[in-house]
Amino acid sequence: MKSLRKESFKALVGSHNYNLAVPESDKDFKVFFIPSYDDLYSGEKYSKAMTSDKEDIEYHDIRKLPDMLWKSNVNFLEVLFSQEVYEYDNLYRILHNRREEIARMNLPYLYDACVGMFFKKKKEFERVYKSNNLNKSCKHVMSAVRIVDFLKRYVSNKWDFQKAMFYSANEFTREKLLNIRRGKYQSKDELQALISESELLLKKMKDVYKEQKEDYDIKEWVYETVKEHVKSHLIEELG
Fold it and tell me: What is the C-alpha to C-alpha distance for residues 125 and 118, in angstroms, rounded to an integer?
């Protein structure tokens, strides 16, 4: 009989977390759970995704989190800056207390990760636009523009991830992003111009990020913190 996995925390991510949701936006969550003895014995890092009418939920083995944070995957970094969190043990609070340090620990890789996200969304826009799906095209363009804007805001806010990620209600850029999402820009030339403008800005910011130093001390702390957390739960399970 397999041991049960215990959830550690559940965090809101995506457009609702940035204050960029539109009426049709589902709520996206990431749930992290503690692996069982059977998971550790087999070496399995279990993940799954579930979708309902109102929520999209991804489940991840907590052992995956340190790697994703070190690789500066923005979709995982934002977990530590979530506007809606459900905590089932004390791990989230421990990580949350050093969240800005964690977000800054690998800025050169953060730039690369965002570049990858930008070009993925650019490619998806070009593919989807050919199928005359304007709604998805606009969504991809907004995502591409937003990730570059995040990089710019992160620098201008002196490496404050929270301020860079979240858009206040009265911000001009928030309205611009929402107008892209709502389809105000409909022609391919208009949408392509938004992509091209962001691509130029992306190139201009490269040196700023690449000259930053990695923080290996905080990296080690994150890995050891999660490792000790898993260890304590394993002792409890087997005890």
Answer: 11
